Amino acid sequence: MAKFLYKLGSTAYQKKWPFLAVWLVILIGITALAGLYAKPTSSSFSIPGLDSVTTMEKMQERFPGSDDATSAPTGSVVIQAPEGKTLTDPEVEAEINQMLDEVRATGVLKDADSVVDPVLAAQGVAAQMTPALEAQGVPAEKIAADIESISPLSADETTGIISMTFDADSAMDVSAEDREKVTNILNEYDDGDLTVVYNGNVFGAAATSLDMTSELIGLLVAAVVLIVTFGSFIAAGMPLISAIIGVGIGIMGIQLATAFTDSVNDMTPTLASMIGLAVGIDYALFIVSRFRNELISQTGANDLEPKELAERLRTMPLAARAHAMGMAVGTAGSAVVFAGTTVLIALVALSIINIPFLTVMAIAAAITVAIAVLVALSFLPALLGLLGTRIFAARVPGPKVPDPEDEKPTMGLKWVRLVRKMPVAYLLVGVVLLGAIAIPATNMRLAMPTDGTSTLGTAPRTAYDMTADAFGPGRNAPMIALIDATDVPEEERPLVFGQAVEQFLNTDGVKNAQITQTTENFDTAQILITPEFDAIDERTSETLATLRADAETFADDTGATYGITGVTPIYDDISARLGDVLVPYVLIVLVLAFLVLLLVFRSIWVPLIAALGFGLSVLATFGATVAIFQEGAFGIIDDPQPLLSFLPIMLIGLVFGLAMDYQIFLVTRMREGFTKGKTAGNATSNGFKHGARVVTAAALIMVSVFAAFIAQDMAFIKTMGFALAVAVFFDAFVVRMMIIPATMFLLDDKAWWLPKWLDKILPNVDVEGEGLSELHEARTEELKENVGVGA
């Protein structure tokens, strides 16, 4: 592979235009196609086979008019009267009806005439339900409770809810234009005396729009780090351009995919952008840094001042520069391919747990990473070839950027010498520090994104909070029990349905339960269950668990069965499923890490401590994230909430790849030194000296890119940005730069021990491009003879 990459790099450098043209055509073409055919992303989450999903599907069979609650094109408008007034006041009601007339006139609603003001709707509910329930002998107190549980008007008549259904097959099919026709009207009236906010499937999509602020901040900080790293404005721009091209193609590809599937989630593009931008910059950084070292080595310009170095490079012939580019891609490029492969493995492995929306998110991110690798290997060399001898021009004023080949000790070498003096102390400090930070992870709670997890101040969150205040928190977490009485004699079915209602009412955490619909033959009934607490309250999950636990007893007593569904049960089941697969996935990733590094380093101990270090950094990341975002430590977050259900598992997949990147770029030089006769301790120190600077720059860039996403409003993206930034910091600076070298010094020669029988059967993976040694020597001699380079 190293020889193939050498040829790719040198060819792209010399014959730059075809390579540049191909990538630019791809970018322009896919952007045009996405602009023509892309559809809105989905805001629903579902996992086939869950009890709540199966019950939902059964309900849709028995009641053909029922919609999937997680994707129906519905929304709710919550209206609050001005202070000191109620919605029943004539002038207030008149204003509401004027607003609704304008909404109905947009023509985007299905059955627009059914959209009426809350006062009129509440009167209709009471007029319809009261005589029907009285005829059944239902006590007046229960009738009042049933009406209150579904009434669109609060008890104090200050707050009302208006339900709307858009004329579309699903929420995803509602165009932004149609949604804005309604929200523009609602926002206009919200600016007046009324308080008008909205939430639900359709309106929730309006609150998930993202801007490019985070990407721009990340790029700006990355630019500063790259300028310091290379000491050149032009060289610093190369990784940024390369990353932008790769991410642009990846994101446009994701947008285009919406034309063929409705499984692309709202969060998928941002997640892909986040990881693609970070690895795209880092991979390009590794190659440009190696290219710089190769140029310096060939010119013999280690000790030249910046101005003299630039002059020497300007006189360097094309053949010599192409050879340096080939060596850079053949060596650092090989490591990039392997590092990128580890990221792909970790992401694609998410498909093993069989959660469709998570699989799509992972595959989209994986494709973006793959594109970043390909761009770094082919577009980047061509771009460098376009600049030619000007690549390290526009020098930054200040000291010369240190060269790892110099004999002078670098900061990395000074640090690793400190670790070498007291390896036990540094090992203990690193392990104890991460272990202590990990403690809050034992309290981790998971929940799916709802209007209740939206950012404070957004319309969905305000609507959610207003509903909870006026109608009780359980109004935001309705559940539906589907009672199947097919095997019950027809004359006994009403009693069975009534028994189900009584059982639910006597369950802790249930505020009310009532029959809302039955089939014509009376073999199936829907019972609306209103819990006492909201959708993300742990007590609601406990109530759901109790209701399900009682199903077996109910079946034994009555011969009927039931299942619980609705948005809250579906999301609760998804969270439980993700929590259940978390530990198995961690084990899968740890085993993968061990096997991958076993191939790279041909050692038992090196991959073992690398995998354990990865596990420690992940646990510390969970602890820090739980402490700040869930428990509100230090008052940094003003709205502590459970972590998003799929955050931990996505975090593990992403951090695994990044951790292996740093392990490979640091430890391959250590192995190279050891195999060439250095003592284990000296090999560790020398390898650290060569890799520390570029890994530090790469880690700082990743931390900056990820941390910039904390500025986003979406809770998942904000938390994921923080978690990834912290994970990279812990793994790069505590695990890879403290725990790993300390352990390597303690193990000494044993660090590279591998059973002979295993050494014979393992394939030889040339990550550092050792196979290019002969080619490099021959090519260098040829260049000396023909053009005098290095002479």
Give short descriptive properties of this protein.
single chain; 791 residues; alpha+beta; Multidrug efflux transporter AcrB transmembrane fold; 4-stranded antiparallel β-sheet; 3-stranded antiparallel β-sheet; disordered C terminus; Multidrug RND transporter; cell membrane; MMPL_dom; transmembrane
Radius of gyration: 31 Å
Give me the side-by-side strand order of the main sheet: 6-7-5-8
Helix and strand composition category = alpha+beta
Q: In CATH terms, what is the fold-level topology of the largest domain?
A: Multidrug efflux transporter AcrB transmembrane fold
> Kindly state the mean pLDDT as a whole number?
86
Query: For this structure, what is the CATH class of the largest domain?
Result: Mainly Alpha
Membrane topology: Multi-pass membrane protein
InterPro entries: MMPL_dom, Mycobact_MmpL, SSD
Protein name: Multidrug RND transporter
Family: Belongs to the resistance-nodulation-cell division (RND) (TC 2.A.6) family. MmpL subfamily.
